[in-house]
Amino acid sequence: MNTAPNASITDRVAPVNVGAPVTAVHFLKDTAVFVLGEDELMFVAAAGSEARVKAHDGGIMSSASNGTQIITGGDDGKVVLTGADREPQTIATDAKKRWIDQVAIAPNGATAWSVGKSATAREAKGAEKCVELASSIGGIAFAPKGYRLALTQYNGVAMWFPNTAAAPEFLHWKGSHLGVVFSDDGKFLITTMQDAMLHGWRLADNKHMRMSGYAGKVRSLSWTADGDLATSGADQLIIWPFQGKDGPMGKAPAMMAPHKARVTTVAAHPKQSVILAGYADGLVLMLRIKDGAEILVRAGDDQPIAALGWSSRGDRFAFATEEGSAGIVMI
């Protein structure tokens, strides 16, 4: 990979004609799967062949992937699993056809989804458990080990073990909590908030971590190969240090690649200290974290970057804008 400052790999982008707004991109091995705002998933194989698969009758509200399957939730009230065979399987339908707000999938195939204040967890073998919270659920995440879920809501996060009869443990912090992620080692839990900030907990003792200073709402988080947390929400890439036992407490974040537009989407390489940053004006940069070297992937054109994703081997990645301009790069 060329690491010279101001280098460009724009000539290595294989354009993809999605032709519709994109909300996310996931990889199933070497195949990029673009999640469209309406109805479909678009599969683009390494050889360049394309296929569109109808997963929902209407808008796709949320998606997640474990590298083997993609789970999607729609405004048709359906929860759908789609694998490399490109055969969508409806695993649940809300009895009242309410929107499926959030979805999550674990490495072993366990799944979860939310409708309003209710969340359902489904084991890989099919057994389901439900829980009702006091307010609407903003985000769902599986812990990296064990059958445990984090469910965000107003004023905190519910930590739920679906296979026990115990009520969820509640981590309190005032405000509206939206997205949620566990660190890869399971030691920290981080939420995005309605305000322009992040909040976190060290789970060993529930010590609070407040991460602020953003210009806007943080909508995208990605853990780097070194265990730090890259984030959107500012006019430069913000990376919080998590390698010590105290995480970012008492430490300043690293800041990279300042630009005239805000970072909208981030995606860290699965194995190397490299990260992709997409901006509100359509710019995509590949950045080497250790020295800040920048490689241009896509020049800005006022189409906000909506999705970035790496293959599990880290040998290819994909990007897409809100309007449906997309591409795949092999490195």
From TrEMBL:
Keywords: Repeat, WD repeat
InterPro entries, sorted: WD40/YVTN_repeat-like_dom_sf, WD40_repeat_dom_sf, WD40_rpt
Keyword Repeat tagged: yes
A Pfam family annotated for this UniProt entry: WD40
Protein name as it appears in the record: WD domain, G-beta repeat
Organism for this UniProt entry: Variibacter gotjawalensis
Taxonomic lineage of the native organism: Bacteria, Pseudomonadati, Pseudomonadota, Alphaproteobacteria, Hyphomicrobiales
